[in-house]
Amino acid sequence: MRKAMVMDYEGWRVQHEAYEINKTGTNGRTGDASIGMIDWMFNKGWFSLHWQLFDWFYRPGPAYFATKKADEITHIAWDYGGLNGGPGSVFVTNDDYTTHSGLTATVDVLNFNLANMYHNLFAVTAAPASSTAVVTLPTIANLSTTYFINLKLTDSSNNVVSQNFYWYSTTPDAVRNSCKWYFCAASKSANMTSLATLPMITVAHADVIGTTSVNTTLTNSSSSLAFLIRARVLDSAGNEVLPVWWSDNYVTLLPGQSRTLTATYFNNAAPPSGATVHLDGFNLNPN
How much is the pTM? Predict the structure, then answer.
């Protein structure tokens, strides 16, 4: 289940980011712009099948929040393939009709032990309906087999516009030369096995149960990565309250980081009596 959660998140995010990065032909790539994409199995009619953004009970899974992340109006993204086939590249995509100037992109490459192997800041101006290349990452020596990319986009007041976190490998994915029109099979998968060795940790959360919503502030006080944290609202009997619209979910926190998430109830309804917030995740002790 943990592996499926990771695959679900990265598989859906990368599809939408690939479209966003290539949508305009203004990103410095050679070739034509992307003209559209189709999501098959957006949701499902059978609650026994798992291939969707949300399930029969309106429970959003990792795919939903990965897609929500990728489709932010102004978004920072890492392209695995890089600019014109080179090393991985960072882009800022903008679906707004206005120009966003005074932006700063912060790019960090972290070893599996979270040692910082690359750090840089870049000034960015995102034109209307654009995809802007920020940087092509250099070759980085002594990277661990599994490593991380941490991205943040801030405005001129240092407010966070977009943040994104990736995991990848020095043994990358490889795609077969022969493809069908709808599918390119992998000939080799990236080596992510180190993720299974992440230590189990506890993430603290401070919750405010409001009349129509819940705010929960997550804090990772450990020395390890808190990977893909899922927050849920439970009633007094321990059942998940659905539908609930989260501002973000399946988030990842580095040591010392905090993040506040907001959950709004359907039709701004009041939370059930005794409602609480429950956390779990890839390497979290449920609490």
Answer: 0.91
